[in-house]
Amino acid sequence: MNRPCSLLNVDSKMEIAESTTEEAVASPRTTPVEKKAKQDAWDRCVCDYINPVVDKVRRRPLFQKVIIANTTLIVIGAVMGLYLEKRYFDQGAVGFVGLFVFSGLALSILVNYVLVRLAFRPLDDVAEAMKAIRAGHRGIRVPEVTDDPQMEELSKSLNAMLNSLDSQRKRAAASVIQAQEEERKRIARELHDETSQSLTSLIIGIRMVQEVIPDTMPDLRERLKAINEQAHETLNEVHNMAIRLRPSVLDDLGLSAALRSYVKEFIANTGIAVNLQLIAVNERLSAELETVLYRVVQEALTNVARHASARKCQVTLRRKESSILGIIEDDGRGFSPQRVMMSEDQGRGLGLHGMKERIELVGGSLEFESRPEEGTTIMLEVPLLIKEGIL
Ligand SMILES: Nc1ncnc2c1ncn2[C@@H]1O[C@H](COP(=O)(O)OP(=O)(O)OP(=O)(O)O)[C@@H](O)[C@H]1O
Ligand SMILES: [Mg+2]
Prior knowledge:
The structure is a single chain. By secondary structure, this protein is an alpha+beta fold. The chain folds into four domains: 6-49, no CATH class; 55-140, no CATH class; 141-246; 252-391, Heat Shock Protein 90 (2-Layer Sandwich). The protein has eleven helices and nine strands. The protein has helices at 33-39, 52-58, 62-87, 94-134, 149-212, 218-245, 248-252, 255-270, 287-308, 337-342, 350-361; strands at residues 6-10, 16-20, 29-31, 44-47, 273-279, 312-319, 323-330, 365-370, 376-383. A hairpin with a 5-residue loop joins strand 1 and strand 2. The longest helix has 64 residues, at 149-212. It is elongated and about 135 Å long. The model is unreliable at 23-31 (pLDDT under 50). The structure holds adenosine-5'-triphosphate and magnesium ion. Adenosine-5'-triphosphate binds next to helix 9 and helix 11.
């Protein structure tokens, strides 16, 4: 039968905790080190103890570490040099002393190189974190535990700055998106209430004139017919524009109805076969969430039509217990999301950044998976309970 393994845990302050594997995570009892260490036999010893002198040197700033290392080397070199000179130089062993000088130099360069490399390792982490943040992983932070107090201070300040920039950016993005939605709503309402009404009056007027024109004026009749058709087309365009700007069905009937209607129009306009699967999302969601999900699907499908040369596309939204999962997949030409997201070109990637931004503002996450010639998949997850008043 397996018996629990007994552990001797020596922590960084040289205090001892005894435990078995079963109770190790619970609350190990601590005992003074001298008393306990000798009297029992232990299966394993877990030691986090570092000699205080080594620890003190390790936690010095880089400048002091270099001074300490070089002073030690110079002192050792001077003592050894004096000794060797006395012993061998007088006997003519110049080559041997030269070898000593050369080794000392090599050792000094090596020690300084290792020290500086180790000291600058946290900067590599900073560079990695910055690269990831630029690629869109905005939640990434620099590791704060380092051996160098100055580096520790630097990484802490950097993380604090990233946190504050992140919340400022979120607030700014939220107000821009909110203003954009309000403006779209206003223009859609104006198009519907003003422009559509005027066009409808115009069409009625044309019809009335058509009725009173005598059959003896066929040219005029033809002209009016053409004008009437043009007015009808313009009315349809205005109507579609208002829907694209802000479909009233999104406010009145909710996300499912708005997406079904959008996808139907998309298929008719582009000829791309879209399979829309809405699983358990018939119930109304919060207005913010519905707007965000609608805009993301809209942008994703617009991209499919503009860039993908795809034949088919699958859009799935599935409601889980506390979140909504979404997948938008096409079989088109694909692209490199990392290259687009990190592109310096100000105009590029606005749509992709906008999608990510909107989803992150409601506490969700969104990833692009695509490679040239291998189609594109967008995966997202948003929590159902979002903080009030984000959008
Ligand atoms: N589904 C896709 N298939 C292939 N390439 C895509 C797809 N989605 C995006 N891309 C590529 O990513 C680039 C950036 O897309 P993004 O939506 O950010 O900008 P855009 O569509 O060019 O302009 P807009 O800001 O008007 O949306 C596109 O120019 C295109 O090259
Ligand atoms: Mg786009």
